[in-house]
Amino acid sequence: MATYRVKSIFGPTIQGEGLHQGWPCLFVRLAGCNAWDGRAETRATSACPYCDTDFRDGETLALPQILERLEALAPAQLHVGLVLSGGEPLLQADAALIAGLAAKFSWIDIETNGTRVCPPRPANVFISCSPKAIRGQGIVVTPDWWKILIPDQESFVPQALASGLPVFVQPTCPDAGPAGDIYQRNLLHCLELCFAHGCRLSTQLHKYVGVE
Questions:
Q1: Of 164, 167, 175, 189, which residue has the fewest beta carbons closer than 10 angstroms?
Q2: In the chain, what are the domain boundaries?
Q3: Is 190 in the active site?
């Protein structure tokens, strides 16, 4: 039986980003990433120096164990979605994992940097691509929407707009926050992109309301 390296499973919480922003959900965070190794000493030279996520280590679990933990978090009568995140979840997530999770939830968002192709997925599984400029690794996923981190990944905005798909712009948060002067400047620039190009604003709602 296939196993997966899982950093954390938690919730209920809300999806703070993308098309399902504000909707209740659970989270499965898979360990590992190809944009940064997660060590403090390599953060500044990584593709994601602003990363706010701990995705190192974790434990090895099979699909039945993952489902058991998810079911313990949400009673059957609670209608929630699921966010499959990382790190980079498509380093591990295969068709069996995605199908097994999709059978239990009304919707699933896979949050990916776009450098890995997604396996076949049911209709209730969505791809949220937050593209990262990783040397030698182009954007190969076909997303349902884009989430561009501003200003660090602004170079992807033209590609995202040309796709005709929804484009969310989200200010990076170098200070503890969302707060601080740099964050406010990034937020204002996101608003400028919204007014100029019809982008949608993503503000990490979960941070504003104080949930994980």
A1: 164
A2: 3-169
A3: no
pLDDT band at 119 (very low <50, low <70, confident <90, very high): very high
The pTM is what? Answer: 0.93
Catalytic residue (one of 3, 10, 13, 53): 53
Catalytic residue (choose from 33, 118, 190, 199)? 33
Sequence letter at residue 14: I
Q: Which two three-digit tokens encode residue 124?
A: 């209730």
> What is the spatial distance between Cα 28 and Cα 6, in angstroms, rounded to a whole number?
7
Query: What whole-number distance in Å separates Cα of residue 109 and Cα of residue 26?
Result: 11
Six token digits for residue 210: 């104080």
Give the pair of three-digit tokens for residue 160. 């995202």
Residue 33 is a catalytic residue: yes
46 is written with which tokens?
Answer: 């990584």
pLDDT digits (tens, 9 = 90+) for 160-194: 999 999 999 999 987 667 888 999 999 999 999 99
Is residue 48 annotated as a catalytic residue, yes or no?
yes
DSSP string, 88-147: -GGGT--HHHHHHHHTTSS-EEEEE-SSSPPPP--TTEEEEE----BTTB------SEEE
For the domain spanning 3-169, the CATH number is 3.20.20.70
Place of tokens 């699921």: 82
Virtual torsion, Cα 179, 182, 188, 193, nearest 10 deg: -120
Catalytic residue among 17, 20, 25, 27: 27
